[in-house]
Amino acid sequence: MAISKYQNIDWTTGVTAVDNIAAANIQSIDNIATPSGPPPTNWRSTIYTFDTQPTQTGAANDWAPDAAYTADGWVNGQACIQGTQWTPGINAKGWNCDFGSTPSSNTGPGGAMTDFNNPAVTSISTRRYVYKEASSGRNTYDHVARTPGYNFSTLMNNTSNNLRMVIWHHAYTAPPVGWQDPLFEVYADTLTTTTKATSTFVFDLPVAGNTNTGFTDPWKLNYVDLNGYRTANQTYYFWINMGPQNIGTVWQHDMALDSIYFEEY
Q: Global pTM?
């Protein structure tokens, strides 16, 4: 239902401007739509496709976010945790970044998503993704990065709407190599560095039904429910961890993520 009056004045016939803004240009007041303006547009964060990011496929190094991603608030690897371990007893590393196939054979995607909402695989160099390079013993590590921070209570146009995090993933490895749970996990905190033990669990993705059948198998979509974070007047950061894979042929677990963003719906 749209607002009908403003300060006891009929909106349609008596209000011409509010705070020197023409009534026709005001979409809502206190998240209530006005009759003269279109309904508010649902908020959506920047869509992080990683297409502009420098590639880093070497097992000894992690992806270094460029200046734009760093300014937004992305932090990769041990710089986003307290100490050197995300999970007690497991050393942490950061994500890698690539286009096309990963350097390891029989694992990983054949390329990034064609677009942020098109799960078809493309190998072109301008479409990139982040992933967990499992070679050289990296399969035994946590691979963690932190998103930018968001105060959803001030960003959302209507905190009664739903809120979610969107993450696409690709998890392929040639048979008979398996996976162990979870494929990835999400935690939240208001601090800029944290650990699994001191942050709040949000989501994890089980193996069952969530692996891919080949390099060119389409990327898979995940929605992470964030309704519990809509109204708190605080800035929240989110840690996404791709944990160890200690089974089978251990270097064949190059799992990837693409097109990560937050949205009101």
A: 0.86
